[in-house]
Automatic annotation (TrEMBL):
Pfam family membership, one: adh_short
Protein name, UniProt field: Dehydrogenase/reductase SDR family member on chromosome X
Family label: Belongs to the short-chain dehydrogenases/reductases (SDR) family.
Source organism per UniProt: Kryptolebias marmoratus (Mangrove killifish)
Superkingdom: Eukaryota
GO molecular function: oxidoreductase activity
Keywords: Oxidoreductase
Length: 326
């Protein structure tokens, strides 16, 4: 009991201290100003969690550039409202909503199957949807929620759409997989024998761990594509601390403080989406220049565990086993 309490307390303190450090860095560095990006006519993109926040701004910008964008999300009403706002702003925007619950492996499989049946290309996959600090719980498939939604659901989605991404990359521009991660991966830890956080549970630690898992997956996928000379790049992006609904599960007093601080110090969703869009669209990231971990418009060196080959491979293989993809 005491050790579990100490673990939860330490995890929370580490996360909030890192958040304070990130805020200071944001104050000292101007947010990225997205350069003019090339037109995306004829290209197709999928953005998970594209109904609000950073995802919405990514969808909005891609649609403005002429891409056919598919929002994958749980809340149909929210997704349709997002489409209505985008189409009111850009009359010729081609945006649609498809049901996708990343907490349900069945839903992910149905989404991918439905997409592939349409024989559309897939040039850009933005794995953006996620949860943070949700109460302890398991999905219907038996996985811890942060691990399931932030990592495993996106792993499965990417795997199921990988052949389409490869084929689309061979027809012109290199295809892109962009995983929206976070600086909190730096304090995450991957315990291969306890990915479900059964030994000690902390929502703070579970969130950080899921973001590290996302980064490990992103890096390993990129290396696999490069080794096979496949025209697909994969990179992870840190959008910074952005004023979105992701913080809705904070303890009430902290949530009230966050709302006040966010208006003054956090980045806007438009600013948070800039590096995501740069990673997805910039020709400079094609081929050998792609991959890596990106923040504020450039590649950054991050913690050693993030690029540990054996850890990447072990997590990849365990994920395949968990999803029965062997």
């Amino acid at each position: 009991m005491w050790s579990a309490f100490c673990f939860r307390l330490l995890s929370a303190v580490k996360l909030y201290l890192l958040g304070f450090k990130v805020l200071l860095a944001q104050l000292l560095n101007k947010p990225l100003r997205l350069p003019v990006m090339p037109r995306q006519d004829g290209r197709v993109a999928i953005v998970t969690g594209g109904g609000r926040g950073i995802g919405y701004e990514v969808v909005r910008h891609l649609a403005r550039l002429g891409a056919h964008v598919i929002i994958g999300g749980r809340d149909e009403q929210e997704g349709l409202a997002a489409i209505q706002r985008i189409c009111a702003e850009y009359k010729e925007a081609k945006v649609e909503f498809r049901k996708l619950d990343l907490a349900s492996l069945q839903s992910v499989r149905q989404f991918a199957q439905s997409f592939k049946e349409r024989n559309l290309p897939l040039n850009i996959l933005v794995n953006n949807g996620g949860v943070m600090l949700v109460p302890e719980g398991r999905t219907d498939d038996g996985f811890e929620q942060h691990f399931a939604v932030n990592y495993l659901g996106h792993f499965l989605l990417t795997w199921l759409l990988l052949d389409t991404l490869k084929d689309s990359g061979r027809c012109g521009y290199v295809s892109s997989v962009v995983n929206v991660s976070s600086s909190v991966h730096r304090i995450g830890e991957i315990k291969l024998n306890d990915l479900n956080c059964c030994q000690h549970y902390s929502a703070h630690a579970a969130y950080c761990n899921s973001k590290l898992a996302q980064l490990l997956f992103s890096s390993h996928l990129h290396q696999e594509m490069q080794r096979g000379r496949v025209p697909v790049i994969s990179c992870a992006v840190d959008p910074g601390m952005v004023d979105t609904a992701l913080y809705c599960h904070l303890w009430t007093p902290l949530r009230m403080a966050q709302r006040l601080i966010a208006r003054l110090l956090f980045r806007t969703p438009v600013e948070g989406a800039a590096t995501v869009l740069l990673a997805a669209l910039s020709p400079a990231l094609d081929g050998d220049c792609g991959g890596g971990y990106w923040a504020n418009g450039h590649r950054e060196v991050t913690t050693p565990p993030s690029f540990e080959p054996q850890l990447q491979l072990s997590l990849w293989e365990i994920s395949l086993q968990l999803l029965s993809l062997q």
